[in-house]
Amino acid sequence: MATISRSSLVLLFVAACTKPRAPDVAPPNLAPSATSSAAPVASGPVRLEQLSLGARHTCARYSDGHVECWGEGNDGQLGDGATKRRSAAAPVASLTHATTLCSGDMYSCARTDQGVRCWGANKSGQLGDGTLVSRPTPVAVLDLSDVVEIACGDVHACARTRAGAVRCWGENDHGSMGPGGAGQHPKPDSPLADLDGVKQLALGGAHSCAIVRDGSVRCWGKNDHGQLGDGTTNDSPSPRAVSGLASVVQLALSDRSSCARTEDGGVWCWGGNKYGQLGDGTREEKTKPVRVTLAPVDALSGGDMHVCALTKGAVWCWGNSDAGQLGDGERTHRSAPVAVASLSNIVEVTAGWSHTCARTSEAVWCWGENTHGQLGDGTTTMRLVPTPVAR
Fold first, then answer.
1. CA distance 175 to 152
2. What is the pTM of this model?
3. What is the mean pLDDT of residues 234-245?
4. Do 117 and 66 form a contact (C-beta atoms < 8 A)?
5. CA 86, 69, 94, 152: dihedral to nearest 10 degrees?
6. From CA 196, how far away is CA 214, in angstroms rounded?
7. From the CB of residue 292, how many other CB atoms can be counted at a distance below 10 Å?
8. Which sequence spans correspond to the domains of the chain?
9. Architecture in CATH for domain 48-388
10. CB 53, CB 14: distance < 8 Å
11. In this structure, are residues 295 and 312 in contact, taking their beta carbons and an 8 Å threshold?
12. What are the DSSP calls for 34-51, one per residue?
C-alpha cells in the first residue's frame, strides 16, 4: 500500500493479507551500486523524510537517499541481505539516492536516480525483475524509465511515467493490473489504456485507483465489496469512474476499501466496512463514496482494514483495532474517527497491516502489532498507544 506528508502527498497504499512465502530466496548481492550521475545529495544534517509500512515491516527514507527497514524479514523484505526479523533499523543494501518508497505485503520498492528497485517476497512477480524468486537485496524493475511515481499493493505494483503512462506488474487475478490476463506478471505490462492525465496512483489489496486530470477518480480490479466505487460489486480490469467524486487531491486504499481526500479537506470512503473502516459510523459496506465526519484533513493513509488521517498536526484513525493499531489505548474497532493518544506536531502518518507510524520533524512513533519488531522499539511487545522508535 505509499507515504503521506504535508509537503509530499505520496501515497503508499499498504495492503494487507499475509501470503505464503515464496519458495526460493536468491542469495544476497552486496556489490556496491554504480556511481550516480545525478546531482549530489544536498549537504547538511541527514533527516528522515518518509515512512513506508508493509504487512509486518517498516521502512524509512532519509534525505541523503539511504533507506533503513525493520520488522519481519523472512522473505528478505528488510533488504539487508538476510532473512530474519529485526526490532531495530538496518540499512537496505546497495540502495542509494532513493527519492520515494512504497511497501506491499512482504516487499518494498524505491524510486531512485537509476530506476525502480524492489526487494522481498516475489511469488507473484511483484518485484518486477522477470522472475518469481524472492530477493533479500534490491533488484531493478525491468523495462521502466522516466518514472515519477510508484505505488505498491498487496502483491502488485504500478509506476507512472512522466508522459502519464501507467505500467503494472505482479499478480493480476482480479484485474488489479488491468486487462493483461490473470496470473503472475513478473515484469511491467504494457501501459494501461483508458486513463488520461493520471495525477496520482494508489493500490489496495487487489484493486487500484488513479486521480485523473479533471480531479475525478478511476478504479479497477477486485470489487467484491464495492471498493471500485462504481455502484456495483463486479470486478473490472478496465478503469471505472468512481461515482460522484470531484476535486480529489489524494487517494488512500486499504485491502477491501478506498478513501479519497478532496481539495476542501473532506474525506470520502467506499467499499468493505466490516470493522468500520469507512468511518461513517456504520458497519455496512458501500458501493459509492460516503462522507467521513472529520475536520479538514491534510493527509490520509490506508492500512489493511484501518485508515488514519492527519489534521493540524493531530492524528485520527478508524476501523480495525485488533492489535491496537488505532492508537487510542484500546483494542476496540471504531466506525468513526478517534484521536490517537498523546501525539502533536505530526507531519506524516502511515498505516500498515496492523500497525501504524507517525513522525514529527524530530521523532518517530509507532503503535499496534509488534510480533516481528515492526514498531522498531527494540521489543516485540504490542503497543496500544504510540511508542518512540529507537533511532
1. 15
2. 0.89
3. 97
4. no
5. 130
6. 9
7. 23
8. 48-388
9. 7 Propeller (2.130)
10. yes
11. yes
12. PPP-SPPPPPS---EEEE
